[in-house]
Each structure stands twice: as C-alpha cells, then as structure tokens.
Amino acid sequence: MGFLTGAYILDEIARIAPFKVWLGIKWLCTYIAIRPGELVQIREQDIDTENRYIYIHHSKTGGTKPVPMLDEDVELFKQLNPCFPRSFFFRHDIGKGGVKKGQRYGEKFFYKWWKRACDNLRVEGVDLYGGTRHSSAVALRQHFSPEQIRQGTMHQTNKAFERYYRVGADDIRTIYQESSRTTIDSQKKIKKLIGFKN
C-alpha cells in the first residue's frame, strides 16, 4: 500500500469517526514506534506536554518507552481539556451496548473504524498496524535513510536502543514530522476538525 492510500484512509476516518478515534489513528500513522495495543493503554498523565513525550508503559519489551511528540499533537491534546490524569486517554465518552462510559477503548476499536473506512473506500487487505506503519515507512523513505526510519521505530534491542539515544529526541521528531505531513494534507484540516477559530 502506498502512502497516498494511507492518507485517504485517514481522511475517510476523519469524515466518519469521532475526533478522538481519528486522533488515535493519526498518532499511529505518525508515531511508528507505537503499536495499537500500546496506544489504547495510555493515560492522560502519560502525555507530557511540557517535555513533549508520550510515555508507553506497556510496551512490547515490558519497559517504559518515551516517544517524542510533535508540537501540533501537544496542542491537539491540550484542546481536549484533559482533567483526569489517571483516566485512560482513549476512553468512551458515552455508554452504549456492553461498553460503559469511561471504559478504555478495546485493542480492536481503532481497527474497527479503520476497517469501516477501508470498506467505504473499497480498499482491501490492509490491516491497521501494518497499514499505518507501512504507509508511513514508504512515505518516509523519500526523505530518510532506512537507518533513520529504523530509529523512528525505536526498536529497543541492543544496538538499536543505543542508536535511539544517540540520535536524540529532536531528530526522531523530525522523522515523525515528515510522517505526519504525509498523512494529513494541511494544518487547516486539523484546525477544522477540532473547531479552532482562525
């Protein structure tokens, strides 16, 4: 799947899904170091707006993974007026069916919306994690080396872990900025989605 397909899917999600669902999937497209199962477990307090990090405490390796955050996403997070630090950030605003208000999104919740958008666009065979990561990696390859992209994925094993800390958070943010740029066409669209006024 090319990066344009990923961008079209994200745009369709923006059209049909609640804002926070779009934001979560946008973050999966941008922060290629984060897996869907990790993202739904973050709490409001895990998003450090001062230092610009998302802290993943339930990573695949079992440790805490600090993921550098873009300024635009810090601002999007602030606009949602988080006021319950210990609550899951990605939680249901209303109760419906077997879901209770305040309950965190299930691990397949983003996938359900991704699949619905794919069905609407008649895109087949693209799963959420593979689709977001692959489309981002394809787009990033136009601007960065395979080694730089690998650093963006923040694989925390042996030398890869050491390289991440050597390269620095700002370099990782540069990679994520390019990833974000290829999945959303303009800042105007983001502002419109959350009701910003010019």
TrEMBL record:
The keyword Transmembrane helix does not apply. Keywords: DNA recombination. The keyword Lipid metabolism does not apply. It holds the Pfam family Phage_integrase. Residues 29-165 form the Tyr recombinase domain. One of its GO terms (biological process) is DNA recombination. This is Phage integrase family protein. It comes from Desulfopila aestuarii DSM 18488.
